[in-house]
Amino acid sequence: MMKGKQERSTIEQPQILKLVENVEKVVVGKRREIELSLIAILSGGHVLLEDVPGVGKTMMVRAIARSLGADFKRIQFTPDLLPSDVTGVSVFNQKTMEFQFRPGPVMTNIVLADEINRTSPKTQAALLEALEEGSVTTDGETRELQQPFFVMATQNPIEYGGTYPLPEAQLDRFLFKFQIGYPTKSEELEVLNRVEKQHPIETLQSVMELETLLSMQEEVKKVYVQKNVKEYIISIVNATRHHHSVYLGASPRASIALMKAGQAFAYIQNRDYVIPDDIKYLAPFTLRHRIMLSSDAKLSDTTTERIVKDVIDQVRIPAGSEQAQ
């Protein structure tokens, strides 16, 4: 888990800061993780959380949904879950003598895909179109999803029994992958104090309308990315493909993801341009799940986090890219 650069993320955008502080009424000591989740939402991406049970994954996404006044659904992934249980199904109505579509839980604003690696690959794949295209296709008909649309998927660590590792195509659809981690002693004491009489999630109020969030998403797209910064992104991603410990490097989708995340990160800091430090900060969360290690690297206990750090250290930072030209 990347702990060393939490101070790098400083929110200057007033509405986003208010949103983060509202979520922090429920989630203690996890500002970086909240910020990363909001960066994903602003850039139209999705998040994969890999962590042990009970550290607050569900509570964080519920708090974000409440703070935005967004529709929220939870899908508990189990071995017997079917694709239609995710996307929806057409049911024959005997009164009208017609088939009627019953939307699945994925057709909402914010989805918690809980323990996604406990279901079969076929059901995991039911999310692919929703994650990438913002739509689902059932019975030959494509249906657009509500906007904004955000999926936060959780999974147990792969070494746990009864899990199905997500395939590369599925992992590549997630903008970020990170962990929440255990709280410190003081943070855990604060959690106990807050839930002693009533859980704060029960009284949490919305502080932003969905229309405002949609407007922000459009503003994020206008954040300027200089050519040198784009080349810096490409150099980092390309370096993962040629690293001696990597069997499969990051795809062009990773370059797009890193650029869009950089735009959202600059936006929450009230900048209308992306700088290389934005990319350096976000690269570990964007690339670590998009890299496949070679067999030798796995045997030597090399991690994807270490490879991304090596790549960032090796790639030269472009000169003259501190501001928009």
Automatic annotation (TrEMBL):
InterPro entries, sorted: AAA+_ATPase, ATPase_AAA-3, CbbQ/NirQ/NorQ/GpvN, ChlI/MoxR_AAA_lid, P-loop_NTPase
Q: Which UniProt keywords apply?
A: ATP-binding, Nucleotide-binding
Superkingdom per UniProt = Bacteria
In alphabetical order, the GO MF annotations are: ATP binding; ATP hydrolysis activity
Tell me what organism the protein belongs to. Answer: Alkalicoccus halolimnae
Q: Does the keyword Nucleotide-binding apply?
A: yes
Q: What is this protein called?
A: MoxR family ATPase
Q: Name one Pfam family in it.
A: AAA_lid_2
CDD domains under this entry? AAA (cd00009)
Family of the protein in this entry: Belongs to the MoxR family.
Location of the AAA+ ATPase domain:
43-184
